[in-house]
Amino acid sequence: MKPASEECDALADSAHEEFPSRIPPLDLPRFLTREHHRIHLVGVAGSGMSGLAGLLIELGHAVSGSDKVTTTETERLQRLGLRFHDQHRPEHADAANLVVFSSAIKDDNPILVARRDSGKPVVRRAEALAAIMRAKCGIVIAGMHGKTTTSAMTAHVLREGGLHPSHYVGAEIPLLGTNAHWDPRGEYFVAEGDESDGTLCCFHPEHSLILNIEEEHLDFYADLAAIEKVFEQLIDQTSGTVFYNADDPNAARLCAKRKGAVSYGFSEEAHYRGIDVELRDFGSVFCVDRCGGKLGEATLNVPGEHNVHNALGVIALASELGIPFEKIAASLRKFEHARRRFEIKYESDRFLLIDDYAHHPTEIRATLKTARAMGRKRVLAMFQPHRYSRTKALCREFGSAFDEADRVVVTDVYPASEPPIPGISGQTIVNEMVKRGHRGASYQPRFERVHCDIGNALDVGDLVLSLGAGNIHEQLSILAADLVIAEKLKAVVGEEGDVRLYEPLSKHTTLRVGGPAQFWVEPRNEKAFADLIRFCRDENLPLFAMGRGSNLLVRDGGICGVVVHPRGGDFDKIQVNSSEITAGAGVKLREIAYAARASNLGGLEWMEGIPGAVGGALRMNAGAMGAQTFESVTRIRYLDAEGNPHVKDRDELEVFYRRFPLLENNFAISATFRTQPAERAEIDSRLRESQEKRRTTQPIAKSAGCIFKNPAGIPAGRLVDELGLKNSRVGNARVSEVHGNFIVNDGGATAAEMLQLIDKIQSAARAMRGIELETEVEIVGEPE
Ligand code: EPU
User: What is the rounded CA–CA span in Å between residue 18 and residue 31?
Assistant: First the structure.
């Protein structure tokens, strides 16, 4: 390794030429690899930046970062200690001894502006990476195509060869664990060098591997000559061996003249030469010669001739580092692709989730064909079109590319820096599919809801594919993570229980609004319910109990965690025992009223007018016709927060108007109601009275019953009426003209609209009558 001062000079030299205003007044390699500091990364969510953040955390620094987006990678890094900020605020970087910024960050970024004003050190990502690398023997993999695969392959082969390499690769590589890793035991550091912004010349590696050089990134470079200049500088700055692809004319022209350079490829002049190449569906087999002598045979399990080339480069490099060919060949056989190439995200007997990069109709057809051949029952796909220009140009081909999929959810277009083309969206492709007769296609313009659409449609035996070159895999990852939990929940509630992902709660509330429940769980007996409570407690999963949803306003973002719906099985049982009726939490109050009638028992006729079930009625002490639930309750059975059962008599319970605190943290199992023997005619007359009251004073439309509790002095319905607010509306939420305390859903109303209307009524009551209206309806869930 070079002395620290020399490293620093060399780095400063390169920085002088390229970025004169950003020279760090410090010995960067020492600062980054032998000391511990506070470091802030601007643009930390980028694929390269997140890798650097991971390295810096492993090196023991206190790392913070800012970005306007979060990714699964930033979330992972947060778990490792990254302090993440979703805005670029100078104060978040104030305490940092060094700020590192991504090439994607503009000059007017507030953190960069503040740092420059204060004269504190700021460096580019590549400068930091190059400095870290100088603490080891650096190996840079450079070229226009194949960098990620080849650097991953190199790191893998060196690791299998026992060299404990550190690595930095531009994408997630499952085989390597993470996209960047610092291994203090090893001598080598393998890094993918990015040519797109000229920072390649920051590197002073021991060895470099040049894959190919051609015209690219012409937004940055004037021409091929400018690109070659950067590669030439990298070659000059390489202290050890330059490895190059002899079949690439530009790489060969630049590298061949370099003393000691080692070439690889198919051409006869190559030092390491691939012969007898046999391409297979998902890989290849080929022989390798070194300077005319046979080294052996290699098998690759990644497809395509280009990968044979990449592997030859790795074979040349690893061989020169002293790894025996047999060892190299064994490692190559095990090498799996970089992320996103028919990558299995979840696999069980019941479900299979696969992510693929396919974004061209031909690729999509091929991927779907492979998926079909896997023999699962159905194939469901989430597809994110990539680029407006491609969507427009190939929309007819896209229309026929999905014939092998049973269900396809198409998102909006991933622009990849393109401006939108008017009239072109995911809908364009769905229209084409529908035109061709596809019966399972739908468009979901809200990207973050795609996993919900597919997840809610999931059935045992399904194979799910995410397709596209943008970020659609994130949606599949969310689905995969939730599916792991859903499968555990299924095991908890057993064969008879039911578990569904992302169940739309608008289907389960009488108001017909509300976003999805992350996990919808229906246990069928008390034991399953108790096990579920314990599972949620152990796994830190929020648990919310929901009955008929008649008094519930669920926000549009839905409910995170488990929504338990005790229904069916024991929860639907009614037992009549002389004058007592015991009913499970899932029994509708109306059914109790009629069960009582059948046994000539009276006193529960008022229940006829309540749309909810026992659990909810207990929880809010529901009432009608001047009666309240707990006036009829003799005892209840419930589970506590630990899943333990309890039975309590009425006189042990504290109950208020429309409120029963015990069930705020516990879960109703059943209740026993008191009745009195009565004449059938008398019961029928009271039932009719209740029906009549309902029919004449309450709307038939979709509602959650009364929205507000009756305040002292005046019923809320009359108050709203007197305020002249009947029929007032926000969107499709409207105050009923029949009853002022009902808000009705005229069709497609959102929770946000409901809440705005509630707020409007409360403000008017406050301003005009000095009355605080309290909601009776329970408002839960996340806003959007
Ligand atoms: N009124 C008006 N204008 C209106 C609505 C009502 O002037 O638009 C007057 C009525 O004429 C009546 C008084 O307000 O004189 C009270 O109205 P209502 O008899 O309909 O009873 P409420 O207090 O509004 C209560 C329960 C209902 C239950 C009915 C019938 C509350 C908050 N509401 O309503 O329960 O169905 O009695 O027994 O206690 C529910 O809880 O969701 C619910 C609908």
Answer: 21
**Euclidean distance between CA atoms 317 and 245, whole angstroms:** 12
Q: What is the pLDDT of residues 465-493, one digit of tens each?
A: 999 989 999 999 999 999 999 999 999 99
- pLDDT value of residue 17: 36
The answer on pLDDT for 14 being more than 80 is: no
Q: Evaluate the CA torsion angle 139, 145, 148, 150 in order and state its sign.
A: negative
Query: CA 362 → CA 284, 338, 375, 383, 604, distances in Å?
Result: 21, 21, 21, 14, 66
Rounded to the nearest angstrom, the distance between the alpha carbon of 715 and the centre of ligand 1 is 7
What H or E segment, with its residue span, contains residue 309? helix 305-320
Beta strands in 122-219 (DSSP E): 122-124, 137-142, 166-168, 180-181, 188-192, 207-210
Task: Provide the annotated active-site residues.
Answer: 147-148, 192
Helices 47-58 and 125-133, axial angle in degrees (round to 10): 40
**Contact, 161 vs 327, CB < 8 A?**
yes
What is residue 378's three-state secondary structure?
strand
Residues paired with residue 567 on neighbouring β-strands, in sequence order: none
Smallest Cα–Cα separation from 450: which of 467, 432, 469?
A: 467
Structure tokens at 555: 């926000």
Query: Whole-model pTM?
Result: 0.66
Tokens standing for 464? Answer: 């799910």
Residues with CB under 6 A from ligand 1: 609, 622, 624-625, 693, 697, 705-706, 709-710, 715, 717-718, 721, 739-741, 776
> Which residue type sits at 147?
K
Beta-carbon contacts of residue 779 (< 8 Å; ≥ 6 apart): 553, 555, 755
Answer yes or no: is pLDDT of 354 > 80: yes
Alpha-carbon dihedral angle through residues 631, 635, 639, 644, given to the nearest 10 degrees: 150
Distance 109 CA to ligand 1 centre (A): 58
For residue 679, the tally of other CB atoms under 10 A from its CB is 10
Please give the structure tokens belonging to residue 580: 């007592």
Q: pLDDT per residue over 723-737, tens digit each? A: 999 999 999 999 999
Q: Classify 431 as helix, strand or coil.
A: helix
d(CA 407, CA 409): 7
For helices 325-334 and 305-320, the axis angle rounded to 10 degrees is 140
Residue where the block lists tokens 């003209």: 737
Q: Are strands 742-745 and 778-780 parallel, antiparallel or unpaired?
A: unpaired
Taking the CA of residue 740 as reference, the ligand 1 atom at the shortest distance is 8
Cα torsion angle, 218, 219, 225, 229, sign = negative
Angle between helices 305-320 and 147-160 (to 10 degrees): 40
3-state secondary structure at position 724:
coil
Number of H helices, E strands in the chain: 26, 40
In ligand 1, the atom with minimum distance to the C-alpha of 720 is 8
**Mutate which of 718, 722, 743, 774 to test ligand 1's pocket (most atoms within 8 Å of Cβ)?**
718
Q: Report the largest interatomic distance among the alpha carbons of the chain, rounded to a whole angstrom.
A: 109
Closest CA to 477 of 447, 451, 516: 451
Q: Distance between CA atoms of 394 and 400, rounded to whole angstroms?
A: 10
CA 250 – CA 479 distance, rounded (Å): 45
- The phi and psi torsions of 472 (rounded to 5 degrees) equal -65, -25
- Ligand 1: which atom is nearest the Cα of residue 620? 41
Question: Tokens 């920051």 — which residue?
Answer: 202
Mean pLDDT of the region 39-48: 92
The DSSP output letter for 740 is T
Decide which of 104 and 166 is more confident: 166
